[in-house]
Amino acid sequence: xxxxxxxxxxxxxxxxxxxxxxxxxxxxxxxxxxxxxxxxxxxxxxxxxxxxxxxxxxxxxxxxxxxxxxxxxxxxxxxxxxxxxxxxxxxxxxxxxxxxxxxxxxxxxxxxxxxxxxxxxxxxxxxxxxxxxxxxxxxxxxxxxxxxxxxxxxxxxxxxxxxxxxxxxxxxxxxxxxxxxxxxxxxxxxxxxxxxxxxxx
Amino acid sequence: xxxxxxxxxxxxxxxxxxxxxxxxxxxxxxxxxxxxxxxxxxxxxxxxxxxxxxxxxxxxxxxxxxxxxxxxxxxxxxxxxxxxxxxxxxxxxxxxxxxxxxxxxxxxxxxxxxxxxxxxxxxxxxxxxxxxxxxxxxxxxxxxxxxxxxxxxxxxxxxxxxxxxxxxxxxxxxxxxxxxxxxxxxxxxxxxxxxxxxxxx
Lengths: 201, 201
Known about the structure:
Two copies of one chain form a homodimer.
Chain A: H1 14-29, H2 36-40, H3 48-53, H4 57-75, H5 83-94, H6 101-116, H7 121-147, H8 156-176, H9 182-197
């Protein structure tokens, strides 16, 4: 989740321009190499604006994560799909076999940011909320499927927690180990959906 | 995986003493706060020994990860259990509902170390191998179960990759977000084992 990058167009506001500069600097330098100065290198307006708005690199990054989460929440993907296809679309997106290079760099940065949560409560609060957003999205799809009789009478929250954990694991693994097995994981998730979720015809 | 801590007894060799000091310093300071100096604070012998053996904190940490992996490989847990019970034991251990405080601190440090792999190939090589070790252990249990007719005719490698991803996700999540849902994940894994793996009676 939160691996989309809504930064292809021209930024409409100063905040968007700051977020876009942060995105590019994060891709280029990763968390450890990032400084407000380096974010400024990707920012067309005066760098003093950055220092005016943010006291530290972490404050800026936390605002950036907030911005990305709001983008994710607004996107509300494929809401008109039926439950089975909707779940497939979410899983296809989250467990895609191969990441394009630009998304890989971004995922690397997100994994580094998430690791900050191990010792920084502000990051921890953020990722608790962003996990919750993904979990609720999946639980709502599963609930629809149960109500429609497409899925068995499973606990939507358990299924969503399970799939969230799997997606977080895949996102982490794919940038911290050689990517050899992600395709197999997607296949086994499909087997899980079929054997555990799908109601008998 | 690699969240056991074989450092309760007296170290038998200098290397073990260095590893034990690294373990305690890592728990206390995390990756970012760690220095060879601080590892030395937990080391009874001369600190110059540390500088003699290791050129940098990362070299020492990579050796530490190697040491932990070897410990994990030697442990070979519960090899005499039948496949179903063996798999349960591995999953119970990896997805325990609540981490004791000392194991939590250590898991936090492991998650931070793993995040280094996003931009450091040496860490990436290590975690690729440690993932492989866990994956092979699980695949071998599943293969035994398929051969014994306890499990269905599943692909042991797909199942192992799937469970590895889940375990990595759980390990990451439990120290980077509020721990609210791990119990549910264990329950849903049990449902996966029952619906997907267990052969019909």
